[in-house]
Amino acid sequence: MKKRILFLALAVMSAAGAFCQKNFNYEQRTLRDEIFQFVRNEGYSPSIDSDGDITFKKEGRSYWVVIDARDTSPMYVCLMQTFTYGSPYTRVNLNAVMGDVSRNKMVKIELYDSNFALTADLYLTDSKAFTSIFSKAMSQIDNLRETVIELMEK
């Protein structure tokens, strides 16, 4: 009886998790799985979060790889790092420096209601395009973070 209750509880939790996941088609799921494996092979410990995105840490900082289920050919992938607002990183202050950081070739700042993100966005048809620029995208996000810090300290 206990086994049945445990099995039922696990089935309900799995079903609930499935409803939170994005509805990826076969190509999107393959893309996510290949990127996940690549990130693992790069020495990070990726996981899939509650809504189906890849998350991993580098030097204590969290990063996400987000695949949008709405775009299918090519597929949209975003490598991002998010932060919550706080002094001096307010929406107003960040908006004021957006022009200064727009010279970055690959990354940008996205401002939201309660947080902001540093993002590298791609449209691609397979994981090779992502894996070939991953190191550069990561360094560009890190460079943008440092630029934002410098600008906020002025």
Written account of the structure:
The relative contact order is 0.14. Strand 3 and strand 4 (75-84) form a beta hairpin. By secondary structure, the chain is of the alpha+beta class. The chain has helices at 2-20, 26-41, 91-101, 127-153; strands at 47-48, 54-58, 61-67, 75-84, 107-111, 115-124. Mean pLDDT is 85; it is low at 1-20. Helix 3 (91-101) crosses helix 4 (127-153). Strands 1-2-3-4-6-5 form a 6-stranded antiparallel beta sheet. 47% of the residues lie in helices and 25% in strands. It is elongated. The longest helix is centred in the C-terminal third of the chain and has 27 residues, at 127-153. The N and C termini lie far apart (66 Å).
Task: Output the keywords.
154 residues; alpha+beta; six-stranded antiparallel beta sheet; 4 helices; 6 strands; 47% helix; disordered N terminus
Mean pLDDT score? 85
The shape, in one word, is: elongated
H/E series, N to C?
HHEEEEHEEH
What's the total count of β strands? 6
Helix content: 40-55%
Going across the biggest sheet, name each strand in turn: 1-2-3-4-6-5
Structural class: alpha+beta
Please indicate the percent range of residues in DSSP E strands (runs of 2 or more). 25-35%
Q: Roughly how many Å apart are the termini?
A: 66 Å
Which value, in Å, is the CA radius of gyration?
Answer: 18 Å
- Helical element count? 4
Low-confidence stretches: 1-20
Main beta sheet: 6 strands, antiparallel
